[in-house]
Design goal:
Metallo-beta-lactamase, Chain A, 212 residues, six-stranded mixed β-sheet, single chain, alpha/beta
């Protein structure tokens, strides 16, 4: 299994494309700039199978409909945010100056509980990691040693909790109970900025140490 990080849009939100030896791929958090995603897919001759969303904030969903329509693939989102995609007030696009309202069609499939999942031949664990938003989830690819965490955990930081449904204590609980229990060499693929590891954040992330 391989992955590529594509920073997209003015906020440089990280989309991820996870692909296997057979040429199938999952597209995670296509926030904007659909052409960059399509160009990579074409370059690698991949076949997209689904769009997975770590959560439904506007900077993670802007290219969802164009990519969904381009490849006729389903969109997956946690049920706690099932109303967010078409609602700018919920997805946050209505409250930021200079941001156009983002209206996306509803998800085709809803995550209802955490556990091991198989989607189009991709095996991974869905971990519920709320706090940044009510329906924030992380996708843990155990055999390949990486986890895609959205805006839950960053290198040297944690997700903001001042948007709708955000809760700091819930976020810290998610990080400590769901993420920091993973092997130290697990790569953490965040929604913004660079890749880190569980061990590095356990040892050096000041937000986690101050609030333990």
């Amino acid at each position: 299994m391989e992955w590529i990080q594509l920073p997209l849009g003015p906020l440089q939100t990280n989309a991820y494309i996870v692909y296997n030896n057979e040429g199938s791929c999952l597209i995670i958090d296509p926030g904007e700039e659909k052409n960059k995603i399509i160009q990579f897919v074409q370059k690698k001759r991949l076949q997209p199978k689904a769009i997975l969303l770590t959560h439904a904030h506007f900077d993670h969903i802007g290219a969802v409909d164009p990519i969904r329509e381009e490849y006729s693939i389903p969109v997956y989102l946690h049920q706690a945010e099932k109303k967010w995609l078409p609602n700018p007030s919920l997805n946050g696009s209505a409250i930021f100056e200079g941001v156009q309202p983002i209206i996306v069609k509803h998800a085709d499939q809803l995550f209802t509980k955490e556990g091991e999942l198989s989607i189009e031949g991709f095996q991974f664990y869905l971990l519920e990691t709320p706090g940044h938003s009510p329906g924030s989830v992380s996708f843990y690819f155990e055999e390949d040693g990486f986890i895609i965490v959205g805006d839950t955990l960053f290198e040297g930081g944690i997700g903001r909790t001042d948007l709708k449904g955000g809760q700091e204590q819930q976020l810290l609980k998610s990080i400590h109970n769901k993420l920091l229990t993973l092997p130290n060499d697990t790569y953490v693929l965040p929604g913004h900025d660079g890749v880190t590891t569980i061990g590095k954040e356990t040892d050096h992330n000041p937000f986690l140490h101050v609030r333990k």
